Automatic annotation (TrEMBL):
The active site is at 137, 156. This is Lipoprotein signal peptidase. Belongs to the peptidase A8 family. It comes from Moraxella nasicaprae. Its main location: membrane. The chain crosses the membrane at residues 21-42, 84-101, 108-127, 147-168. The gene is lspA. InterPro entries: Peptidase_A8. This protein specifically catalyzes the removal of signal peptides from prolipoproteins. Pathway: Protein modification; lipoprotein biosynthesis (signal peptide cleavage).
Amino acid sequence: MTQNTPNTQHTSKPKLNGKSAFIYYIIGLIVLIFDQVSKIGFQNWLKVEYTSVPVIEPFFNWTLAYNRGAAFSFLANQGGWQKYFFALLGIAVSAFIVYYLRKIPKSAKVLALGLALVLGGAIGNVIDRLLYGYVIDFIHIHWYDVWHYPVFNVADIGISIGMVLVLFDMLFLEKRRNQTTI
């Protein structure tokens, strides 16, 4: 005779990405390739740092700039150690993302996409730091000569959009996903 207890809850483990994380690695690779090709193209075209070509006046130019620091040139004038620090940080973050993409639930598609975009962007900027000692930037948003957003690149776009998706997942999707697995 089997005895049933009425208050027993059945918890199911979510199915993890595992080998299907490969698709997200491909997305990261696409970001990386687009980033590196665009940087090489703009560096070969504009050649000299701070060369600027108006695209849509008064607010969008192609401007070649070298970022020797982190976001917004943070720590750019620190003598060179920051190149290695930010390269190692980028490698560590990338390694964690490669590992973590296999461990998250298959249902966390927004999170996985966000992490894939961050992965491609992080590796793109690490490659620049290791090859050149700086990150190549070329997208310049401004308003006449009154306001200038720091010059950025495709890797930065991937990182920014990726982080927005990760935050969106954390704020709006993670709780719902966790409730369905209980």
